[in-house]
Amino acid sequence: MRKLILVKVLSLGLVLSAIGAANATIVFQESTGLDCASCHATQGTNMKQLTPFGTGFKANKYQLPVAAPAAPAAITPTCPSGFVFANGKCEVAAVTPPNVTPSCPAGFVFSSGKCMAVAVTPPVSVAGVMNESQARVAAAKILKGDPYGNSFEQISKNIDEVHFISGGNICGARVTKPVWQFQIVVPKSRNPSGDHEIRGSLVIDGRTGKMVCAKLPFLD
Q1: CA–CA gap between residue 154 and residue 144 (Å, rounded)
Q2: Considering the entire predicted model, what is its pTM?
Q3: Per DSSP, which regions of 39-178 are E strands?
Q4: For burial by CB atoms within 10 Å, which of 2, 67, 182, 194 has the most?
């Protein structure tokens, strides 16, 4: 008889406990709008395994709102020396080659992709040396005729650059006296062959205006 009474008491306790748990669940759902699965990863008799939200809810002393779990920091893999991490893998680091200027002989400078004679303005104190205007007239006398032009104005249009040179090397020899160098460019339309423009140079004596050397066709 006592055993029967004990069983009934235990059964009543389990029923009351279940009713209490159910009531607690209803109160939690009504107050938060969340269900059991929000906090508990497993349902049924084993409710100990919590979700991340449930862990935060417990750590916050069962109060809302619960701070979202911090996102893990991004980790960049370490690459060997000379490599960088890009596109999800270690790649060879790009190396910019140094800007190297070619070495030119004395009296020349590297410009426009080639070594060119240094342009020097003739000093006023040097007697007998032609200025640029006089040198242009002397050069025009040498260049006069097709395809370079039959007038000073036509020839002047074909003179691209003018340099006064008093040192270094030119025409395959060392400069021992001042000279004027003219870079000549004649358009293809004036070239008798008609297949390309004419490019070359004319060097004249800085005092006499006579031709020293030339790298141009059609000159007598």
Answers
A1: 9
A2: 0.45
A3: 83-86, 89-92, 108-111, 114-117, 159-165, 169-170, 173-174
A4: 182
The whole-number pLDDT of residue 139 equals 94
Distance of CA 80 to the CA centre of its chain: 24
Q: How many CB atoms lie within 10 A of CB 53?
A: 16
pLDDT grade for 214, boundaries at 50, 70 and 90: very high
Segment 33-54, tens digit of pLDDT: 677 777 777 666 566 677 777 7
Q: How crowded is the C-beta side of 10, counted as CA atoms within 13 Å? A: 6
Residue 143 pLDDT > 90: yes
H helices present in the chain, as ranges: 2-32, 52-59, 132-143, 152-157
Helix (H, G, I), strand (E, B) or coil at 17: helix
Asked if residue 138 lies in contact with residue 204, where contact means CB atoms within 8 angstroms, the answer is: yes
How far out from the chain centre does Cα 102 lie? 23
Q: Which residues are CB-contacts of 192 (< 8 A; sequence separation ≥ 6)?
A: 146, 147, 218
Rounded Cα–Cα distance for residues 149 and 159 (Å): 11
Tokens at residue 153, please?
């104005």
